Amino acid sequence: MRHTISVLVENKFGVLSRISGLFSGRGYNIESLSVGETIDPQVSVMTIVTTGDDWIIEQITKQLNKLIDVIKVVDMTELDHVEREMVMIKVAPRQEDKAEVLRIAEIFRGRVVDSSQKTYTIEITGDEKKIAAIVELLKPMGIKEFVRTGKIAISREGIKRP
Amino acid sequence: MKISGAEIFIESLKKEGVKYIFGYPGGVVLNIFDFLHDEKDLQLILTRHEQGAVHAADGFARATGKAGVALVTSGPGATNTVTGIATASMDSIPLVVFSGQVPTLLIGNDAFQEADIVGITRPCTKYNYLVKDVKDLAAIIKEAFYIATTGRPGPVLIDLPKDVTSAKADFVWPDTVDMRTYKPTYEGNRYMINQAAHMIAKAKKPVIIGGGGVISSGASKELKELAEYTDIPVTMTLMGLGAFPGSHKLSLGMPGMHGTYFANKAIQESDLLVAVGMRFDDRVTGKISAFAPNAKIVHIDIDPTSIRKNVRVDVPIVGDVKKVLQTMNKVLKEEVKEQWGEVRKAWLKQINAWKTERPMSYEKDTDIIKPQYVIEKIHELTRGDAIIATEVGQNQMWTAQFYKFDKPRTLLTSGGLGTMGYGFPAAIGAQFAFPNKLVIDVAGDGSIQMNIQELATAVINKLPVKVAILNNRFLGMVRQWQELFYQERYAHTKLEETIPDFVKIAEAYGAVGLRATKSSEVEPVLKEAFSIKRTVFMDFVIDWKEKVYPMVPAGAAIDEMLFREETKKSEKKLKAVK
Fold first, then answer.
1. ipTM score of the complex?
2. Among chain A residues, CA nearest to B304
3. What structural domains and CATH numbers belong to chain B?
4. Which of B236, B239, B254, B477 is catalytic?
5. Contact, B50 vs B80, CB < 8 A?
6. Is the pLDDT of residue A161 over 50?
7. Contact, B299 vs B321, CB < 8 A?
8. Is any Cβ of chain B less than 8 angstroms from the Cβ of A27?
């Protein structure tokens, strides 16, 4: 099963390597990983999406907790939470599809953040399903480039800070 | 007053009570070595290889329970420590290893003798540091010793760029360490302990499996109290040997791949396993799905990741083994009302029947030297009052099987990583800690050649370390597998043609060399060696055909054992297993 795990860590050099090394060294899978500073510049939050059965997820959370630089580990999947991801899609539609691309972007509440003679770049934020849906619709129009941030997640009650 | 990083290093180690640093000099650590030159209270022990330095620090740590300290230079000096660090990491041994590093400005430039040792050792240390500012040095050293020795112990590495050792700062030694991210759990959950105590009282066929955690938490007394009060037989893993007396009537010896028949039988038949400070290594469990099929499992360990990593656990107790056992013994004595006397009698009777059915034994021979005989003689002549180091392979298993370890911290052996070349430098480290104790390394002719250069370290420091080489002219354990599972095709395990004369090697280094080729010579050689206050190599030319039995083939359940008496018969069974 897929789990979204939120990890509060000390904002030091080498920490990302400790976390990614833990996953590669023990053969766990990382589907996506996003890192950023929190309000406290000494603390970063990592959102890791991984898959595994209950045994593996239990080991992953324990192993993360064991790392000296880790402050707190929360398996978001067990909580009521909100997940978001941002993607930017550069589409190069044929002349006759251009209007359709803009219409799709509008339906999905995307924004055109750049355009050239041949392309539009659309920014979309949403959960996994929404992003999958727009990608499905835009594919026939000719996606030229596609980047995504990886998932971030927040619990509905708000994670208590230590 | 401001002092240099090198002086801060020395003052910090003194504050930590360090007396010996095992190490090797080089360009970027010269600032430190220069100060060590005049140092009286802090002695640098020059080994002849950086791997030897780390193993020596490790041997010191295992024998004393204090952190071992090593200091090496950058690049190759640092990379040579990796095997030693990984060895300590697998066995949870507290070490603080200092590596030199090229000056801060050159880091990342592929400078001469530069290696990213912090990156290289990240997966095999408990934690590691690159010191970028001399002002942080004292606090980092304090924190490193704290991390290495608390919780589940382990090695910590500190990388010291050359300019940090020459830069100056005030020496400020922190009184305490408080890390928001590192707070080991020492007290076990009281509810879980109660539950475990009641299960122990009700169990009909309980077994205790103790591991290295009993030694590192100093819980031998509490474990013995638990076993004796509840009449539960105890098996100790390789890492735990000595934590419970091997000669005790409740002792089952070692479990697992080369464990005793009765330990493995007892585990497989048990209805309750009380696992104490051990981690269910594959050498202990054999085939996981067939391990202790009828048992409920209580697992006490300070490291939560050890629990439910390999086996299912019914009652997990995260905490320091000593503290948990103290509480558990109290609960059993004060709160638990059940009587277990009668049921336990039946269980112990069954176990004694297994002990009689297949005791630990070997084929005695009046002429050719049997390795097990050498180990038995060492035990007999030392009366168990010695520190025994081992290398890895058959020598290690025969020692574990035939030397009755009665006291903790008397066996120094690389259990998890299985590092050949560990024993001799480890014995040297232990001899520094206990100059008046008899320290013996049981070696093989293959293993001893992996760190034989440390003879120089032993001789120059006048250490009376004894090395008993069980010389079978083979890489014996690998040969044993080839014999049993690879149709006797001895690919690259035969050392015979190139085996050196160990007596002459010893003499060339200024040590004493002795040799025994007949069974009758074993005792005189041992006696002579033990009476000489110098480094001694004993070359025991043993029966090369001898194998370690019993043996559980890889992938089999631990009660599917091969025995010496029935090798032929078991070979058929073996094919079935494969």
1. 0.90
2. A62
3. 2-170 (3.40.50.970), 190-357 (3.40.50.1220), 371-547 (3.40.50.970)
4. B477
5. yes
6. no
7. no
8. no
A24 interfaces chain B, CB cutoff of 8 Å: no
CA distance A149 to chain B (A): 26
Q: Which residues in A lie closer than 8 A to residue B119 (C-beta atoms)?
A: 17
Q: Count how many Cα atoms sit within 13 Å of the Cα of residue B332 in the half-sphere of its side chain.
A: 23
Interface test with B, best of A68, A73, A160 (most B CBs within 10 A): A68
Q: How far is the alpha carbon of A71 from chain B, nearest alpha carbon, in Å?
A: 5
Domains delineated in chain A: 2-78 (3.30.70.260), 82-152 (3.30.70.1150)
What is the H or E stretch that residue A63 is in?
Answer: helix A54-66
Chain B residue at shortest CA distance from A62: B305
Tell if the CB–CB gap between A14 and B305 is shorter than 8 Å. no
**Order of strands, sheet of B234-236, starting from the edge strand that comes earlier in the sequence:** B234-236, B206-210, B272-276, B296-301, B315-318
Residue to test with chain B: of A7, A16, A44, A66, most B Cβ within 10 A: A66
Model confidence at A162, in pLDDT bands (50, 70, 90)?
Answer: very low
For residue B330, what are the β-bridge partners?
Answer: none
Tokens for B556, please give them: 């089999």
B50 is an active site residue: yes
Shortest Cα–Cα distance, A45 to chain B (Å): 14
Contacts of B147 in chain A (CB under 8 A): 68
Per-residue tokens: B332: 């059993």
Specify the DSSP class assigned to residue A160: P
pLDDT score, position B490: 95
Asked if the model's pLDDT at residue A15 lies above 60, the reply is yes
Retrieve residue B224's tokens.
Answer: 């013995």
The alpha-carbon gap from A147 to the nearest alpha carbon of chain B, in Å, equals 29
Q: What is the mean pLDDT of each run of 10 residues along chain B (578 residues)?
A: 96 97 98 95 97 98 98 98 98 98 97 97 97 98 98 98 98 95 96 97 97 98 98 98 97 97 98 98 95 97 96 97 98 91 94 96 95 98 97 98 97 98 98 98 98 98 98 97 94 92 98 98 98 98 96 94 76 54
Instruction: Give the separation between CA B536 and CA B533, rounded to whole angstroms.
Output: 9
Q: For residue B39, how far is the Cα from the chain centroid?
A: 31
Q: Does A160 touch chain B (CB under 8 A)?
A: no
Confidence (pLDDT) at A9 = 97
- Predicted TM-score (pTM) of the model is 0.95
